[in-house]
Amino acid sequence: MSEARYADRRLRALEAAEAAGLGGILVSPGPDLAYLTAYAPPPLERLTLLVLSAGADPTLVVPTLERPLAESAAGAPGLTVLDWRDGRDDPYGVVAAMLGPGSYAVSDRTWASHLLSLQRAAPGRPFFAASEALPLLRAVKDADEIRRLRAAGSAADAAFADVIAGPFVGRAETEIALELDRLLREHGHERVDFTVVGSGPNGASGHHEPGERRIEPGDAVVMDFGGVRDEYCSDLTRTVFVGEPSQEQREIYAIVLAAQQAAFEAVRPGVAAQDVDRAARTVITDAGYGDRFVHRTGHGIGLEVHEPPYIVEGDETPLEPGMTFSDEPGIYLAGRFGVRIEDQVAVTDRGAERLNEADRELTIVA
Fold first, then answer.
1. What is the pTM of this model?
2. Which terminus of the chain has fewer CB atoms gathered within 10 Å of its CB, N or C?
3. What gap in Å lies between CA 13 and CA 35, rounded to an integer?
4. Same structural domain for residues 15 and 74?
């Protein structure tokens, strides 16, 4: 990605901060820093902080030890890199002296120890969580980001196609989880973040940790898995049935599938995020299972697997072309089984497109 795109992102972030009545934004290591500079160091006890302040050049404050890496980042051109030395300089005082008038947003991944030290160095200065002051900083994706999300989704689709080709009966949930991990990597993921596998009654727990339960004929198996490919996240859920499903299982699956489709069809520019949740929830509630749909319909996805906007009652964010989020309703019958179907979708000028294309029809495995 070109240095100009990072410079444009920084400019837009500062403009958004100013529009929110802030003096600027302070960004520590994490997805926001990578998005704005292409520099992705681990969070450490030594302060690293991007300072975007009205009327000043964007400045990346780094330990002297880290300066060469910071300067080599793809988004570094156009940044002032200011280093501080262990045992000699006070990095918090350095940052405090750079701040202009007004309050500042602070990225959510900032360690409490860093923020508390900064508050001591700048007494009386108001600081706000970036997720509250600037919740949509990364919400609208450009064409390249959507391309990467689609590639990550396609890789997850391929992993699903491979895993259902093998047997399930008699295998432990942990075995399926390990296979999903291997398959995601084989299909291009650099990192696997989660492989939820819940069989039978364990499928009624939305984020069940895979255990040693052996999968049996008649089980519904919920698989929710994803990770990172080319910096962007995947997140796919499918529920499969081991052998012929019961009539009840078929009915529950059909309800969830209809709810997911209803949410998908509700997506279009200008619609509030909560209205997409309402579309899915209405289908499940009308079928008599409203109290068994216990989570939001979706969450934004990009550099993080969970980010704004959130597809949930109370989130009135108007959808915009380029926003990307999950569509994942579910029904959970405690002690018996659960069903969840999840895809990632992108808002387009006319509606929505799916970024996952794994088969959504009822799937029977051996």
1. 0.95
2. C
3. 11
4. yes
